[in-house]
Amino acid sequence: MSAAGAGQQPVAVSPGLYVVSTPIGNLRDITLRALDILSAADEVLAEDTRVAAKLMSAYGIKARLSPYHDHNGAERRPQILARLAAGGRIALISDAGTPLVSDPGWKLVHDALEAGHKVHPVPGASALLAGLVASGLPSDRFMFAGFLPPKSGARKSALETLKHVPATLVFYESGPRLAESLADLASVLGGGRTAAVARELTKMFEETRRGTLESLARHYEEAGPPRGEIVVLAGPPEERHATAADLDSALRDALKTMPTKEAASSVSEALGLPRREVYQRALQIRSEDAG
């Protein structure tokens, strides 16, 4: 059923590129505006036209579908830009959720904007946000890090750059790699950090499992790879306030190899303390040691 069939007149669809969010599982999670856009579009670009056809069929939409993905993007973009230049109304969808989130669409949006075309966001379902709100983890500040590297060494290196980010970290992961990824998360971020694994969101077997990174890694190692789309979330690191002893210890180590000013700057940044305060204490330590 189209938006018009739901008792609302379709909105006018002006020329431009429409980035349309689609359901991540439950087909009812589609907005009336998204149905209007898909019905009126001259062309709907889909990551997989077979997946898109099922959505269109469910709502009685007869749209011109064409594939747009990583393998044909470079070839297709000039053609799409030409259609936009001619006043075309083009909709871009992914297999599920919001396009451009771990999805090939961003290059097209970038090029369309560079060429002066209008890009219209049509918000809707997102596994990232669905997982976040179901996790019970802090949502006032979060960082989406996409898919981690498939190999453990590269994965741990990537996590090292994220371990001190003061926010909930959100990742996408596959079932076969989940237990190994959780083990690496526990190893680098700390096994006691609160976390959640959300899978099959909005579907019949939806599940959100909460615990520590260590307990979740152990559970999925024993239970085996789960099915479905998976969102992994790790809570922010616990705040730790440096004590006077921490400051003195860090300064004495730094002063062994650095001039006073450089040592104070380095320790100030590492401990999150005011540089002037740290510098004054560094001078005192230098004086005490010299005496």
Keywords:
single chain, 291 residues, alpha/beta, 5-stranded parallel beta sheet, 5-stranded mixed beta sheet, 11 helices, elongated
Briefly say what this structure is:
The chain has 291 residues and is of the alpha/beta class. The chain has helices at residues 32-40, 49-58, 73-85, 106-114, 127-135, 152-160, 178-189, 213-223, 244-255, 260-271, 275-290, and strands at residues 16-20, 43-46, 65-67, 89-93, 119-122, 142-147, 168-173, 194-199, 207-212, 230-234. A hairpin with a 7-residue loop joins strand 8 (194-199) and strand 9.
What does the model show?
32% of the residues are buried. The N and C termini lie far apart (85 Å). It contains eleven helices and ten strands. The strands form two sheets. A five-stranded parallel β-sheet has the order 3-2-4-1-5, sandwiched between helices. A five-stranded mixed β-sheet has the order 6-7-10-8-9, sandwiched between helices. It is α/β, with parallel strands linked by helices. It is elongated. A hairpin with a 7-residue loop joins strand 8 and strand 9 (207-212). The mean pLDDT is 92.
